[in-house]
Each structure stands twice: as C-alpha cells, then as structure tokens.
Design a protein that fits this description.
Blueprint (H helix, E strand, L loop, with lengths): L2 E5 L5 H10 L3 E5 L3 H8 L10 H10 L3 E3 L7 E4 L15 H13 L4 E5 L7 H11 L9 E5 L9 H7 L2 E5 L2 H11 L7 E4 L1 H31 L4 H8 L22 H8 L5 H11 L1 H15 L8 E4 L14 H11 L6 E3 L11 E2 L2 H6 L3 E4 L4 H4 L2 H4 L3 E4 L13
Parallel strand pairs: 1-2, 1-4, 2-3, 4-5, 5-6, 7-8, 9-10, 9-12, 10-11, 12-13
Antiparallel strand pairs: 6-7
Helix pairs in contact: 1-3, 4-5, 8-10, 8-11, 10-11, 12-13
The structure holds nicotinamide-adenine-dinucleotide (NAD).
Nicotinamide-adenine-dinucleotide binds next to helix 4.
Length: about 400
Amino acid sequence: MSLINVIGLGYIGLPTALMFAKNGVEVVGTDLNEKLVTSLLEGQLTFEEDGMVELFRIAQKNGIIFSTKYQKTDIYIVAVPTPYIKSNKKLDPQYVIQAIDQILDVCDKGAIIIIESTISPGAIDKYVRPTIEKKDVVIGKDIHLVHAPERIIPGNMIYELEYNARTIGADDISIAKRVKTLYSKFCKAEIVLTDIVSAEMSKVVENTYRDINIAFANELAKICRKDNMNVYEIIRIANKHPRVNILQPGPGVGGHCISVDPWFLVGDYPDLANLILEARKINDSMPVHVLDRIKQLMKEYNEIDISKIGIYGLSYKENVDDTRESPTLQLLDKMKDNLFLGVKVYDPFIREPMVENQFMNFDEFLNEIEILVIMTAHDHIKSKFDLIENKIILDTRNIFNCSEVHKL
Ligand SMILES: NC(=O)c1ccc[n+]([C@@H]2O[C@H](COP(=O)([O-])OP(=O)(O)OC[C@H]3O[C@@H](n4cnc5c(N)ncnc54)[C@H](O)[C@@H]3O)[C@@H](O)[C@H]2O)c1
C-alpha cells in the first residue's frame, strides 16, 4: 500500500484525498490552515458537496489522517491555490513554490511531486524547477515532477473524480505510468500520458475554451436584448446544428477556474491573446448588464424603492457554497458604486454573514422585497416558484420558463 501526502485540503485537495483513502491508499492530508485541519480532525467537513459526507466517513474508517505538518513520504499531491496577479494577469506561483519548498524539507530521495493545481504553461520550468534546483536536488534523480491537472466541477465532484478523463504530464514515461496506476485506483476513465508543458497548457486551454464560449453566449444575450429577441430560444435552435454547441448566457463567470485561468494566457501572451482578453472583458461586464436590467425594470414598474431589491444567490454556481469571484459580489460592488443602498441578499448555501443586509431566512427575505434578482440557479429556488410569483422576477439563469419572468 502506498502512502501519499495531499497538500492543500480545499475544494480539490480534500475530495481527492478522501477518494484515495476510500480506495485503499494510505493518505495524510496536510493544510496550513489550522482551523480547517481542526474541523476535519473533529469530523466536520469544511464545505458541502454531494456525496462528501459518506465519502468522508469511509475515508475516516480507512484511517485518513489530517495534519498541518508535511509528511515524509514518496508521493505528494499539491492542490494549493493558483490565483493570478491582478496587475499583470500572470500566474501567482507563491503557494506552489511554498508547498514545493516545504516538501523538499521533509521528503525522501526519489519522491514524486504531483502538481494538481492549475498553472500557466511553462510554470513548472519557470518556478518549480528553479525552486528545486536551488536546494541542490536533482530533478529526475532525487525528485520526480508530474503535472496532473484537475477537471472536476463543484457540485458533481465525487462523480467526476471517478468518471472524468485525466491528464498526466511527466518528464519520464515510467514515472507517468506509476502515477497513472495510482490514479487508476479510483479513476475509471481514460488517463492520457503526455509531457509536462502539454498538460499545463491543455488544462488552461480547456477553461479558456469555456470562457470564450460563455462570452459568445453573453454577447448574444446583449444583442438579443437590444432588439427583443429570445436568446435562449435562438441558442436552443442553433444547437440543433450537429456542429454547434453554444453554452448559456448568465450574470457573469466566477469560481477559481474559468474566471482565472484564461488570464494566465493574457498575462503571458499579451500580444497574442486578443480573443481571450475580449472574452474575459465580456464576461466581466455581465454584472453591469444585470444592473442595467434592474434599472430598466425599476423604470418599467414605477416607484420601486431600491431597498426592495432582493438578490438571490451569492455563490458563483448552483448548489455550492463557493463565492470566489462570484458575479453577485461584483454586482453588489457595482450597486454600491451606483448608490443602490439597502439591497437585500439571500443564499441558502451561505450560512455566515458575508455582505450587508444578508438574510438567513428565505421567507423573511421574501417579505422585504419586490424585485427578485436570481443570480444563482440553486435547486432551492426552483421549487419556490409558487411563493415568488407575485414578485417582479429577473431570472439571469433562465430557470423559469414563463412570460412574466424577466430575463437577461
Ligand atoms: N475549485 C475548483 O473548482 C477547481 C477545479 C479544478 C482545478 N482547480 C485548481 O485546483 C487548485 C486548488 O483549488 P481549490 O479550489 O481547491 O483551492 P482552495 O483555496 O479551496 O484550497 C487550497 C487549500 O490550500 C491550502 N494551502 C495554501 N498554501 C498551502 C501550503 N503551502 N501548504 C499546505 N496547504 C496550503 C489553503 O489553506 C487551502 O485550504 C487551484 O490551482 C485551482 O485552480 C480548482
């Protein structure tokens, strides 16, 4: 039985560690966040996800360990954050470099470091190899490097861990094969072996492709709004073409992936990444488009007080509690800039107060508002149509199919 140390127990590292533990691998999960590790040690999950409770219980039964300390072992999986630097749009490699440094302080010779975090193409050459070489450690002999980017989506992580195809990029094919055997313990889909830079680039390309596709849908939504065409109907019909697959428009793009990774290409290839930059700008403009729609509705329905606006959904996508880069937070900022004060907010997945006028009870929230702006398509709201049908509804996620509901 192999022992692995999963570094970073957030949205990616934790389910990955649990999945390995469920499938017979001895796992230590390490995170520098003491509060998070204490919660896990006390048997409390740190975020909600379908199937996580059961998976956690099995992993606990199989002896998974959580710690703030790095372990001496022969396989490390790094799943730390990889944000972009706001000023130049390049990858901020500080968490990865810190993790590599700490691994080198404890690991045995011959250890394999698998970076699961999404990184810009060439980042391992630019940041990881120099960090290792500075310590007189020889890559390919004393340490082996692998990039195995993760593709799972919050809300369906457990299923996707098992059924998504994976990519493993390594310098050395024999190491790639060892790592493939490890992931095969739970991954039932194809595992593609390649070189490191192809693994780095293909992951960023996947998310960039989706960002551009969404930007196209969002631009169509704006065009259709101008001349009162139904963008959803138009996309539905266009997608009947066997080679067309347009995604859905929405209030913006959030999360730690699609709204972040395309920036790496813009940052590293500013003269070449023109389409990618435009797509980012279009998607980032959507919260302002939502605000414009709210203003139009306020004009249409005279005399509605700003404090009667209710924003539903703080997380960036349905049925999860992740608010990183959330379009709602951007909308609320824009509202503040426009002196839209006293706007009410509710999200059934966010149980700690994080913004002003946030309600913890849906009925109380509903009592206070006249316009309901649906920013996140949680299943919760889908079942509440009867309760909200007397409100003016702006449904930015196209979840309600009736003529009284206003769309993007
Ligand atoms: N969230 C997603 O949907 C998703 C999907 C695919 C890929 N990814 C990628 O996976 C990576 C991790 O993302 P995430 O969403 O899990 O992030 P996260 O912020 O949820 O979790 C990262 C964890 O790493 C810990 N950490 C930071 N530095 C550390 C260090 N030096 N040593 C130990 N722990 C450390 C943090 O405390 C945190 O708990 C990112 O590169 C992201 O782009 C994320």
